[in-house]
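The following block was generated as part of the benchmark described in Methods. Ligand: iron/sulfur cluster.
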Amino acid sequence: MEKEAGMDLLETVNTLATKALSGQRPTREEVLRVLRSEDDDLMDVVAAAFRVRRHYFGKRVKLNFLVNLKSGLCPEDCFYCSQRLGSGTEILKYTWLGPEEAAALAGAGISGGARRVCLVASGRGPTDRDIGRVADVIGAIKAEHPAVEVCACLGLLSDGQAARLRAAGAYAYNHNLNTAGGRYSDICTTHTYDDRVDTLRRAQRAGLSPCSGIIAGMGERDEDLVDVALALRDLTPDSVPVNFLIPFEGTPLGTEWNLTPRHCLRILAMVRFVCPDAEVRVAGGREIHLGSMQPLALYLANSIFLGDYLTSEGQQGHQDLEMIAEAGFTVEGLECAKPVARGGPAQVALRHRGAGTDLPPNA
Ligand code: SF4
């Protein structure tokens, strides 16, 4: 009986891979099956989704770098966000960074291998004056690094703002759908899912590359994750960040530790099957939720953030690069770089604890 169930799953993921490679839409049931699969079937899921990832993106990993232009003090109440109104999280709070400072921060990420810089600001949405500020930052970054893609993430856009960002040299605009439309009021009461869709469309109409993704682990059902992934497919974003909730103390979702590393991989595989040719990015929460299984995520996603997130720290940038190289992937734009070798004489630490010493063993 168990064997039969396993074969069914294998058939389903092979069907999903075939559909993904031929541009066919998967059914809701097929996609749901991925999220409901057993841990014992995880490698079958990963292998099938990897075929899709490899077809569209080879073994390249795109690096993105976040610059938080304005941190905290937001009037919105997104339940997952450490920058929300009344947040008790002890984050850094500051107002707009100037163009030089922002460009210097972006330059650090670019020299680490980032091809895209994501300029983020807290708030419901930018004023027209804020758009001018961001335009200056974009100008300063592009003057030094003309080839880098700049993505803006400034909240809800109003008339003409997307076009101004595009004219200033922005390449993309990020605005996540976050969760299924049917439960949006469970995670935010100050704006709606439709507001978010509207901003994404405004960005798209202005010629900005649309970037929109999800946050998993906010108490949603598997069906909700499938619904938001299928909604994203319909909106045709070029890039899809998959965040795993960082449960910040001091936010309403601060105790929601619902994810396992295996389920995070199933979610990434599901998104890859639904949005096969989109840049699927493992975003916030990668380290804390995937833990030692992070490298497997590279078989599903073709993009990560290098270094830190908006208000929390990621693993060290050099560890991100080592992880990519050790898993046999290459950083996009640095395909010719020398592979990173593991180990070396300087890294051998001789044991001075446990047997033969007075110190307790390492256990
Ligand atoms: S997600 Fe954005 S809009 Fe929502 S509270 Fe955080 S900074 Fe404000």
